[in-house]
């Protein structure tokens, strides 16, 4: 089968298209024939060696940590899936392997694909869903009636977070720019701020929750606009303990988790059309170097997906 692997850390020139054997399922695994695989920032961070200290991997290995496809084989201990099932998947970061025609993943790292959604659209859901759900429901413990600000609301994770928050009964404000402004309004966001034209910290106050998908100065300016007892959650860096104490807040850095058993309500919203998926850009696997370059340089205006 064709796959994209690396034999050493480096820039995008280390990506190679190779032909390797189709994997076999271990007892608690399923083998999935990949129909679509998406590109995420973590892909180039792992490729570059930036995360080598946290993820000790053996070369060569196949990149890719998100996709959708059809189960073709199940391990002897698997109980939830059978060959022919259509699934979405997010393998653990030690494993990965979705830049390939087939991948073997643990049973608890897949979830049924909504029937109303294509494989291509489904392939970009696991990471954004896992991140947004973990940040909002697990880390921020959002509640009906709260007011939340989402920084970086126009991206895949941001748009998923906006829709989960809206469906959960929150008043949602987002920062974005360009064509994302209209996209967010179409999704029903209550207020959107163009960060290139207005300073959110001068117009907002008394927020219950801030979800930061940007970091840096954006996070630093967010503490003062959250009411005492409020929550700041960031996917980019740990919130500053001194600032949290100064303003009487709690804070946490979100680590994306794929926990399919908790996603049933959100999957239902996807099935019912209450959550929309931003259309991805389609690339052939042979263009993997170009695809990662587009994501790494932040030139991609939507997620990039390899179709098989």
Describe this structure as you would to a colleague.
Helix 3 (125-139) packs across helix 4. The chain has helices spanning 41-48, 119-122, 125-139, 156-167, 180-186, 200-203, 217-220, 241-247, 264-271, 288-296; strands at residues 2-6, 16-19, 29-38, 61-62, 67-74, 86-89, 102-106, 110-112, 147-151, 171-176, 191-194, 207-212, 226-234, 250-253, 281-283, 304-307. It is globular and about 55 Å long. The protein is of the alpha/beta class. Helices cover 25% and strands 27% of the residues. The chain has 2 domains: 2-124 and 280-307, Quinone Oxidoreductase, Chain A, domain 1; 127-253, Rossmann fold. Keywords: NADP.
Tell me the helix content: 25-40%
Note the total helix count: 10
CATH third-level topology of the largest domain: Quinone Oxidoreductase, Chain A, domain 1
Order of helices and strands: EEEHEEEEEHHEHEHEHEHEHEHEHE
Mean pLDDT: 95
Largest sheet: 7 strands, mixed
Topology overview:
Layout: E1 2-6, E2 16-19, E3 29-38, H1 41-48, E4 61-62, E5 67-74, E6 86-89, E7 102-106, E8 110-112, H2 119-122, H3 125-139, E9 147-151, H4 156-167, E10 171-176, H5 180-186, E11 191-194, H6 200-203, E12 207-212, H7 217-220, E13 226-234, H8 241-247, E14 250-253, H9 264-271, E15 281-283, H10 288-296, E16 304-307
Parallel strand pairs: 9-10, 9-12, 10-11, 12-13, 13-14, 15-16
Antiparallel strand pairs: 1-2, 1-4, 3-5, 3-7, 3-16, 5-6, 6-8
Helix pairs in contact: 3-4
Features:
308 residues; alpha/beta; Quinone Oxidoreductase, Chain A, domain 1; Rossmann fold; 2 domains; six-stranded parallel sheet; 10 helices
């Amino acid at each position: 089968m064709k796959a994209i692997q690396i034999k050493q850390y480096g820039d995008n020139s280390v990506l190679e298209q190779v032909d390797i054997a189709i994997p076999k399922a271990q007892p608690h695994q399923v083998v999935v024939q990949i129909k679509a695989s998406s590109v995420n920032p973590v892909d180039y961070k792992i490729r570059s060696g930036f995360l080598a200290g946290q993820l000790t991997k053996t070369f060569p290995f196949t990149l890719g940590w998100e996709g959708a496809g059809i189960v073709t084989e199940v391990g002897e201990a698997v109980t939830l899936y059978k060959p022919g099932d259509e699934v979405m998947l997010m393998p653990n970061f030690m494993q990965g392997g979705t830049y390939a025609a087939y991948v073997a993943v643990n049973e608890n790292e897949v979830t049924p694909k909504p029937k109303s959604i294509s494989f291509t659209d489904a392939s970009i859901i696991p990471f954004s869903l896992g991140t947004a759900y973990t940040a909002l429901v697990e880390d921020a413990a959002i509640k009906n009636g709260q007011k939340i600000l989402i920084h970086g609301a126009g991206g895949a994770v941001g748009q998923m977070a906006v829709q989960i928050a809206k469906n959960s009964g929150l008043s949602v404000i987002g920062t974005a720019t360009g064509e994302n402004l209209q996209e967010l309004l179409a999704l029903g966001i209550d207020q959107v701020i163009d960060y290139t034209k207005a300073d959110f910290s001068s117009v907002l106050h008394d927020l219950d929750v801030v979800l930061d998908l940007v970091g840096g100065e954006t996070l630093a300016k967010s503490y003062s606009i959250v009411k005492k007892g409020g929550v700041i959650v960031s996917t980019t860096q740990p919130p500053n303990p001194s600032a949290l104490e100064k303003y009487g807040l709690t804070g946490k850095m979100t680590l994306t988790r794929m926990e399919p058993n908790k996603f049933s309500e959100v999957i239902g919203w996807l099935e019912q059309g209450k959550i929309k998926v931003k259309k991805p850009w389609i690339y052939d696997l042979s263009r993997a170097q170009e695809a990662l370059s587009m994501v790494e340089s932040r030139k991609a205006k939507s997620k990039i997906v390899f179709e098989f």
